[in-house]
Amino acid sequence: MKLKQLEGLLGTLQQFSHPKIELEQYPTGPHIASRLLYTAENTYGDISGKIVADFGCGCGTLGLASALLDAEQVIGIDIDPQSLEVASENAVDLELEMDFMQCDINNLRWRDHLVHTVVMNPPFGTRRKGSDIEFLAKALKVASCAVYSLHKTTTRDFIKKIAVRDFNARTAEVLCELRYDVPQLYKFHKKKEVDIAVDLWRFVPNANQAL
Amino acid sequence: MRLLTHNMLSSNVKGVVDGFPLRLEAEKWVEKEVELNVDFLRHIFHKIEWKALAGAARAVGYGELPDEADAAMLDAEDFLRRFHHALLEIHVEEGALVCPDTGRRFPINKGIPNMLLNEDEI
Ligand SMILES: C[S@@+](CC[C@H](N)C(=O)[O-])C[C@H]1O[C@@H](n2cnc3c(N)ncnc32)[C@H](O)[C@@H]1O
């Protein structure tokens, strides 16, 4: 599938109709989402034929993009039942198979390393401090191949240090720096769009050595 | 929820050490064909807890998996087809997952298991 085609399909997905502030529900736009998954597949071969988990899947954008790029099985996890409902409708609309699970990422208990790749756009931790780090810790625990994630550029040094030192990442690499338009979903955002600098990361867990 | 997903999942209730496998109670399920990927099956076989898979398959009325399996069986086309079918083609739509240690039930509605815990279970 061509990048443009992937981006186009992701643009047709329904997104949060009543985003919940406390859960930091803003979608990854089709531009960023398509590039994230396209890089994961075409540069690193981490998607096609793999088991992919989408942490905090929201309306399913990243997971469905993985399914479009021929992941063998995709599992989306979110704490919010309304988002999961929209995500499963999106899957039906695109005629894709994706499994879903309602769970708080902090309490997720999966056997280690059965999932190959985790893709996620975690809450940045602006509402609940540290939730980005909790997502990362859990992702690096379950994944055997790679973790793709977005984090605020201001946290770059911290993320690098903690991933390698505490979460057993073998490598932690910023693939590119993006401008992320968080749309004005929330009243407390004064401007129409809040443009923040975000890093696209690729982490390789230590488990990868065994493969 | 497909049985591959079931095979990864442990009970997350506080205090539970093993919690695997969750017992599957299936009320409604559907089957959807998926293209067979031999390389994937060969690779994933080593990570699958076979007894849990065979048990879950029986819970959805599929008794075609042997009680035990070893890698040599992967050479048989017939075995691969059954393994593939159980792992990827059966979707549990309604039912529950039950913690083997505490008996806590996690409902499955519209194909989505709800693994959220109450405050006192975290
Ligand atoms: C920034 S949004 C990303 C949504 C979607 N992945 C996307 O890329 O469009 C973060 C998502 O994480 C979910 N979330 C927040 N905290 C969570 C938690 N503790 N466990 C599971 N999901 C959570 C939210 O409901 C929301 O859907």
Automatic annotation (TrEMBL), chain A:
Transmembrane segments: none annotated. It comes from the Eukaryota. Residues 34-129 form the Methyltransferase small domain. One of its GO terms (molecular function) is rRNA (adenine-N6-)-methyltransferase activity. InterPro entries: rRNA_MeTrfase/Polyamine_Synth, Small_mtfrase_dom. PANTHER family: RRNA N6-ADENOSINE-METHYLTRANSFERASE METTL5. This is Methyltransferase small domain-containing protein. It comes from Zingiber officinale (Ginger).
From TrEMBL, chain B:
GO terms for biological process: rRNA (guanine-N7)-methylation; tRNA methylation. It holds the Pfam family Trm112p. Signal peptide: none annotated. It comes from the Eukaryota. InterPro entries: Trm112 (IPR039127), Trm112-like (IPR005651). GO terms for molecular function: protein heterodimerization activity. Belongs to the TRM112 family. PANTHER family: MULTIFUNCTIONAL METHYLTRANSFERASE SUBUNIT TRM112-LIKE PROTEIN, UPF0315 PROTEIN-RELATED. Interacts with TRM9. This is Uncharacterized protein. It comes from Zingiber officinale.
